[in-house]
Design goal:
The chain is α+β, with helices and mostly antiparallel strands. The chain has 16 helices and ten strands. The structure holds zinc ion.
C-alpha cells in the first residue's frame, strides 16, 4: 500500500515540476486510482484462502466432493480487479466442481463482486446501459462493458421478479399474514397501460393499440397510495411517500394477481375506504371487479371530459363557437354526475352522417357502461380524488423515462427485469432486498 502511495506522490511531484502548476482533476483521478490499487492489494491478501482446508465436502448429488487444489480466480471489485486463490473441490461421482469460498463471498458464477453488481443494478435501472457503463467509469473509476451492465441489471431484476412471483403465489393461495399497522382512512389503486417498444420477434402477432406502432407490447402499471387528510377546501391530499408501484408486460389476469398482492401488502384489508381510479379500459375494470370487489370505482374525470371534447370536435368540426358551447354544456352534465341525462343527449343528437352516428353510439355506450363510476359529486362529498394523475405520472417516470427512449428495443424478459428493478427501487425496497440476498448467500 505504501508503495502505491509513494508511486502516486512521485508522479504528482514530477508533474508539478514539469508544468509548474497542479492540475487538480488529473491528480485527484490519479489519487483515486492509486487508492484503488492499494485497496485491491489489501483485498487480495484478505481473500486468499490459506491454511488447512477439509479434504472433502458434501456434493449436491449426495456424494462427496474431494479437495483437488488451490485455484486462482479473477474478480472485479469496487476497487478494481483482484486475483486470489481458493480451495477447489470436485465430485468423483458427478464431476461437479465447487469452491465454498465463492459461496461465502456471494460470487458463484459471476466475475463481479457484490458491490460492483449493486452499482450495475442501480445505474442500469436509472439510465441506458451505455450511460450506466459511462457512470461506472466516471463516478467509480470502474471499467465494465455496456453488455455487462445489461446482464447484471437484468439478472438482479429477474431475481427481484422471482421473489415477487413467490409473494403473488402466497397471495393467491390466501396464505398471507395479516398486515398490521396504523389505520388507513382511504387506500387508492390506480391502473393504466402504456406501450413499450420491443424487438421485432416479440409482439407475437399482436396489433399496436392506441396508435402505437405494431412493435410494442403493453406494460400494465399500477400504483397504490393512501390518503389520511384533506387540505384546504376539503381537497384530498396524498400521504407523502405513500406511493408504491407494480408493473409488467403480462396478461390482465396475471397483472390482477400482482396488484392484489401489492394492495394486500399495503394494508388493503384494514383500509376503511377503498378506491380504484382508472380510465375506461375494460381490462382494468374486470380486474377491479374480480380482485377488489366492494371498492369504489372511479373513471378519471379528466379522461371522461376528454371523451366529450373529442366528440365535440367531430360533431362541430368547422364551428368552433358551437363546439365549445356544446362541449361545455355536456361537461357540466358530466361533472354533475348526471350520466343518464348525458347519455340521453348523445342518443338524441341528430347525426349528420353514418360515421358520426357510430361515434355517438360508441360514446353513449362508454358513458352508460361507466355511469356508476362517474358520480363525481358523490365522490367529492367523500373527499376522494377523481383524477388518475398519479398513475399518469408513473407511466412517465417508471416506464417511459427509462424504457421508451428513442432507438431502444426490448425483449419482454429484459423489459420485465428492468421494470421489476425500477419498481423495487422506487418502492424503497431495494436496500432491504439486497441485504436479505446477502443473508441468504
Ligand atoms: Zn456430485
Amino acid at each position: 500500500m505504501a508503495r502505491e502511495v509513494g508511486r502516486f506522490l512521485q508522479v504528482a511531484f514530477s508533474e508539478l515540476r514539469r508544468q509548474g502548476r497542479l492540475d487538480l482533476e488529473a491528480i485527484e483521478t490519479a489519487a483515486r486510482a492509486a487508492m484503488h490499487r492499494a485497496g485491491a492489494t489489501a483485498l487480495e491478501h484478505l481473500l486468499k484462502e490459506s491454511g488447512p482446508v477439509p479434504d472433502a465436502l458434501p456434493c449436491a448429488c449426495g456424494q462427496k466432493a474431494r479437495y483437488r487444489q488451490k485455484r486462482s480466480r479473477q474478480l472485479l471489485t469496487t476497487v478494481g480487479p483482484v486475483r486470489f486463490e481458493r480451495a477447489y473441490y470436485c465430485c468423483d461421482s458427478c464431476h461437479q466442481g465447487q469452491s465454498p469460498r465463492d459461496r461465502e463471498l456471494d460470487i458463484v458464477g459471476t466475475e463481479y463482486s457484490p458491490g460492483v453488481r449493486r452499482m450495475m443494478a442501480v445505474v442500469g435501472s436509472d439510465a441506458s446501459f451505455d450511460q450506466g457503463r459511462e457512470q461506472m467509469q466516471l463516478l467509480a473509476g470502474i471499467e465494465v462493458t455496456r453488455k455487462a451492465v445489461e446482464r447484471q441489471a437484468e439478472a438482479i431484476g429477474s431475481d427481484i421478479e422471482c421473489r415477487a412471483q413467490a409473494a403473488i403465489r402466497r397471495a393467491v393461495q390466501l396464505d398471507l399474514p395479516e398486515v398490521g399497522g396504523k389505520d388507513i382512512p382511504v387506500l387508492y389503486i390506480e391502473m393504466d397501460g402504456t406501450g413499450v417498444p420491443v424487438t421485432a420477434a416479440e409482439p407475437e402477432g399482436r396489433q399496436g393499440k392506441n396508435g402505437e406502432p405494431a412493435h410494442t407490447r403493453e406494460v400494465k402499471l399500477g400504483c397504490v397510495f393512501t390518503q389520511t387528510e384533506t387540505g384546504r377546501d376539503r381537497c384530498p391530499v396524498r400521504d407523502e411517500s405513500s406511493t408504491t408501484y407494480a408493473a409488467a408486460i403480462e396478461t390482465a389476469e396475471e397483472f390482477g394477481r400482482r396488484m392484489y398482492s401489492q394492495a394486500w401488502e399495503r394494508g388493503w384489508s384494514r383500509a376503511a375506504k377503498k378506491v380504484i381510479i382508472a380510465d375506461g379500459a375494460v381490462w382494468i375494470w374486470n380486474i377491479a371487479d374480480r380482485e377488489f370487489p366492494g371498492a369504489t370505482q372511479i373513471v378519471d374525470l379528466y379522461h371522461a371530459r376528454e371523451h366529450i371534447w373529442q366528440l365535440a370536435g367531430k360533431l362541430f368540426a368547422t364551428d368552433e363557437r358551437r363546439r365549445k358551447r356544446w362541449a361545455a354544456r355536456m361537461q357540466s352534465i358530466l361533472d354533475a354526475g348526471k350520466i343518464e341525462a348525458l347519455v340521453k343527449q348523445l342518443r338524441a343528437f341528430p347525426a349528420p352522417s353514418l360515421d358520426i352516428g357510430d361515434v355517438l353510439r360508441t360514446e353513449a355506450e362508454y358513458f352508460e357502461r361507466n355511469r356508476e363510476r362517474m358520480r363525481y359529486p358523490a365522490f367529492r362529498r367523500q373527499n376522494f380524488f377523481v383524477g388518475s394523475g398519479v398513475i399518469e405520472a408513473a407511466c412517465r417516470t417508471v416506464i417511459a423515462k427509462r424504457l421508451k427512449q428513442s432507438g431502444m428495443f426490448w425483449t419482454v424478459r429484459g423489459a420485465n427485469a428492468i421494470i421489476a428493478l425500477r419498481c423495487c427501487r422506487l418502492n424503497r425496497e431495494f436496500e432491504d432486498y439486497w441485504a436479505s440476498r446477502a443473508e441468504a448467500a
